[in-house]
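so my prof wants the structure for this chain in the tokens format not the other one, which i didnt know existed until like an hour ago. anyway here's the sequence
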Amino acid sequence: MLALKLTLPFHVERFEIHADYLEIEGFKKFLNFVADEEDIIGRPLTGVPDNEEIRFAMKSKSRHVKGTPKRSTVQIVDN
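here's what i got, hopefully its the right format
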């Protein structure tokens, strides 16, 4: 049996101290999110078209965060 270990480089020592985030009411009720122009469409089941989909306006806010990343954090760079 061959076991492979994948190591990804993570060279970010600190993040910015402010983060932008989208405000989605009832976020944990949905399994699938799709962006559509100015809205986000949330669906409870993946692969089921129009099954109780709910539209949310893209409302972003900014908040103060710790600059130290967690192991599960991925930095997204917007070009």
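also thought this was worth mentioning. The first strand starts at residue 18 and ends at 22.
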